[in-house]
Write a structure and sequence with these properties.
The complex is a heterodimer of chains A (about 400) and B (about 425). In chain A, about 65% of the residues lie in helices and about 10% in strands. The radius of gyration of chain A is 28 Å and the shape is globular. By secondary structure, chain B is mainly α. Helix content of chain B is about 70%, strand content about 0%. The chains are: A alpha+beta (about 400), B mainly alpha (about 425). The interface between A and B is large, with 56 and 56 residues.
Chain lengths: ~400, ~425
């Protein structure tokens, strides 16, 4: 072949300085090194497992877990399997992650806007909040809240606010909608989703018409009205048909001799502390992201909007914020991801999240297998967040230009 | 005509409500009715918070738990009987501190810039001030106090070394820093067979020293590793790129505490049994790699934001590929993402508290295990955690302050 001698001495340059040779050599060497390391680690591991008789494999998953789980959103009994207990842990983590993300976004948005307020004292207070909560380790904050909640009065002497909210060292109980009958409730939820879809579609169509023709079309009134009418009609129909409304508000009430509380929804102290800690901590990061996003929108945009006669509120909502969103969303998603991963500190405040369940499991099952499973679970959650983020990002990047 | 008359008249002063204190108050606090409402609400909240906060700090809080823990915050269980086999090894971390202060003094002496001076003075000053803590001489002996006071002359020695000896170049001082770090590790760990330096197992290392050792090691190494990963991720060699992407996404996708836990159960199995094992080293490696994955993404952001013309111009001038990267694109990329890099350093420092999962007693865990084993201090838990929070805050705030100074020096964001 003619290419070989050319490769060896190209214009007097020795072959080992040829770019393609270097590139190929780098790739081959790095691949070989990584493969060799992996093989070496794996062989060592297999040897160690055999020599020291370390439990391994995944057969434990179908065994009974036989350990209570403090707080669970899926029904759980000690006789359930390891696999199911891991599922309970995943749901526990997802619940905290979703609730935390929603609350942290709201609080972060509020503080980020406050930080940019023209009101000096409001902006300084927001700055102090951000600088403090961002710079102190989450674990310190979690322990602080943990012992604050622990120092609350016991359940018998706890605070009752308006007969509806019960605050004590076991957690906080609040009124919560409850389904009378799961089938009926599901039917109504389906109807509600349809109503919401119709309302949103009407809103979008009328907004477009208003923007195109300038005729007043009342997109919000009509959209909300359509949603409420359809949802309300479904509610009424189901109530008449079954003789009971699909949902009712269940209020917490003292129950039994030990001051226990029945009804409503009780966020037990572990969940409560973890949520407070995660939300306060993450909100400080989100606030900075929101501030940076709003500041990234050119001053000219605000000035032009104000010159057109839009109110400050309307300017923020319709001009500044939609543009800021494009800068805000990518780092915001990575904060959601961080919050989800940080929920793994739940074990430190007695909340049974996936990691803390896994740590407990290692006492009766092979640790390596369990941790491989939960790392896969966390990777899946991270990928889900990235997927949601990318989809939404694509929507706001191009969807508005029509 | 009225025009000449108006011209001749002096420009009228702005109304009194627009200038001075009143003007400032008007513009910043009471410009509109809702601004006034906001001001009133915030001031009320602020006054309430200050009133109850100060009342708690000075009247209600009982700080004896802090006094009781004292030196354990700094060193954990290091100076206990079990750790030092009955001998006194308190002087070893103190000697390490002196070395660090010498290096800080040298950094101050090198250029005399105010940031280096402030940090050096802060560290040496606070350490020396600890010599006057009102503990009894049984709890805190003369030797301990004198070694703490010695930080002031150590600072002067470092300063003089940089000013009057050939050691006063940036590279040499950086090398001094690396040397001080390794000497610290050797002093803390001890050397078998050397009198006075009996080995102390890493399980007894603890307190703030542990956080700082993990943080300093991690910070120094995660930046170069992160840069290498970022360059690898942007490489056009598919194998290198895939390996780097896999590494970054794996470490970014899972919580640090699961990685730390894995490092204690899986990593010992992956190495031959006769290799020396060190739980602290494994934790340090995991924290560093975790941080590097994030660092890589920050650097990648900086590289992506850089105008393509920079690299093209460098190539057109005849620089080789590695020269373009090392001399042109990388320095600019790093400079542009300094806030993100320092943010990651701060994260790493905060993450060192997570070593609780592998049973190490850092400044946070030492306090928590103290109140758990002494339930009479349980009501004082808030005091304890507020104290730990303030300690962390001082370090992290200093870091972000230094980062802002560096940005100013490098002129980031200025045209």
């Amino acid at each position: 072949m003619a290419a070989v001698p050319q490769l060896l001495t190209y214009q007097g340059i020795p072959f080992w300085r040829h770019v393609r040779v270097i590139q190929w050599a780098t790739q081959v060497i790095s691949a070989v090194v990584v493969v060799a390391l992996v093989v070496w680690f794996f062989t060592n591991m297999v040897n160690a497992i055999q020599d020291r008789d370390i439990p391994h494999g995944f057969s434990f998953l179908s065994r009974e877990y036989q350990t209570p789980i403090g707080e669970h959103f899926l029904p759980y009994e000690s006789s359930d399997t390891f696999l199911y207990a891991l599922g309970v842990g995943i749901v526990n983590t997802v619940v905290v992650a979703v609730a935390g993300v929603i609350l942290a976004t709201l609080l972060g948005l509020f503080i980020g806007v406050a930080r940019l307020s023209t009101n000096w004292i409001v902006s300084k207070l927001a700055t102090v909040y951000i600088e403090f909560f961002r710079n102190v380790p989450l674990l310190v904050q979690l322990f602080f809240w943990f012992y604050i909640v622990l120092a609350l009065p016991t359940i018998r002497e706890g605070y009752v606010i308006g007969g509806l909210f019960y605050v004590n060292n076991r957690g906080i109980s609040l009124p919560w909608p409850q389904a009378s009958d799961y089938t009926v409730a599901l039917v109504w939820l389906g109807a509600a989703i349809v109503a919401l879809g119709v309302g949103l579609a009407a809103n979008k169509r009328l907004s477009r018409r208003e923007a195109r023709t300038g005729l007043p079309s009342y997109p919000i009134v009509v959209g909300a009205g359509a949603a409420i009418i359809i949802g309300g009609a479904a509610w009424l129909a189901l109530s008449i048909f079954t003789g009971d409304s699909p949902f009712f508000i269940s209020t917490p009430e003292p129950h039994g001799r030990f001051g226990n509380i029945a009804g409503g929804f009780t966020a037990r102290s572990g969940l409560l502390v973890l949520l407070i800690g995660l939300v306060m901590y993450t909100a400080s990061f989100i606030a900075e992201i929101v501030r940076a996003g709003i500041q990234s929108v050119g001053r000219g945009q605000t000035e032009a909007a104000r010159a057109l006669g839009l109110s400050p509120m309307k300017t923020l909502r319709s001009v500044t914020f939609p543009q800021a969103l494009r800068v805000i969303v990518p780092p915001l998603i990575s904060q959601f991801l961080n919050l989800t991963k940080n929920s793994s500190l739940g074990g430190a405040v007695a909340y049974s999240d996936l990691t803390s369940i896994a740590v407990t499991m290692t006492q009766t099952a092979p640790a390596v297998s369990i941790f491989m499973l939960i790392m896969a679970a966390y990777l899946a959650m991270s990928l889900t967040w990235s997927l949601i983020g990318n989809l939404y990002n694509r929507y706001i990047q191009y969807g508005r230009r029509n | 005509m009225a025009a000449p008359a108006t011209q001749a008249r002096e420009t009228p002063l702005p109304p009194r409500s627009e200038v001075g204190v009143i003007g400032w108050l008007h513009a910043n606090l009471f410009s509109t009715w809702y601004n006034t409402v906001l001001t009133v609400i915030s001031v009320t909240l602020l006054v309430l918070a200050l009133w109850f906060g100060l009342k708690w700090v000075f009247a209600d809080a009982d700080w004896t738990v802090i006094v009781e823990l004292g030196g354990r915050f700094v060193l954990g269980r290091y100076n206990t009987e079990a750790a030092c086999a009955g001998q006194n090894c308190f002087w070893r971390p103190q000697a390490a501190l002196l070395l660090v202060v010498v290096v800080l003094g040298a950094a101050w002496g090198l250029r005399g810039n105010p940031t280096a001076r402030n940090v050096a003075l802060l560290v040496a000053g606070v350490s020396a001030a600890f010599a006057f803590l009102p503990y009894s001489l049984e709890t805190m002996g003369w030797d301990v106090r004198l070694l703490l006071l010695a930080n002031l002359p150590a600072l002067a020695v470092g300063w003089a070394l940089a000013r009057y000896t050939p050691l006063g170049t940036g590279m040499r001082i950086a090398l001094m820093g690396v040397g001080a770090f390794f000497l610290t590790l050797i002093l803390m760990r001890g050397v078998a067979g050397v009198p006075g330096l009996q080995p102390v197992s890493v399980i007894y290392w603890g307190g703030l020293t542990l956080n700082l050792i993990l943080a300093v090691g991690g910070i120094t190494l995660s930046l170069p590793i992160g840069i290498a990963l970022a360059l690898g991720r942007r490489s056009n060699l598919p194998v290198v790129k895939v390996l780097c992407v896999a590494f970054i996404e794996l470490f970014r996708g899972v919580p640090l505490i699961t990685l730390l836990f894995m490092s204690q159960v899986l990593v010992p199995l992956a190495f031959p049994e006769d290799m020396p094992q060190n739980s602290l080293f494994r934790a340090a490696v995991v924290i560093t790699l975790f941080s590097s994955a994030y660092m890589a993404e920050n650097i990648r952001g900086g590289l992506q934001a850089l105008h393509l013309g920079q690299a093209e111009a460098a190539r057109a001038l005849g620089l080789a590929g590695w020269q373009t990267t090392l001399l042109i694109t990388l320095p600019q990329a790093v400079r542009n993402v300094i806030p993100a890099i320092v943010g990651q350093f701060i994260s790493l420092f905060k993450d060192t508290t997570l070593v609780y999962i592998i049973g190490m007693q850092d400044v946070l865990t030492i306090g928590r295990s103290f109140i758990q084993s002494n339930p009479e201090y349980l009501p004082n838990a808030p005091e304890l955690f507020v104290f730990v929070a303030v300690v962390f805050w001082i370090f992290t705030y200093t870091m972000s302050h230094v980062s802002r100074r560096i940005e100013d020096t490098l002129g980031v964001g200025q045209r």
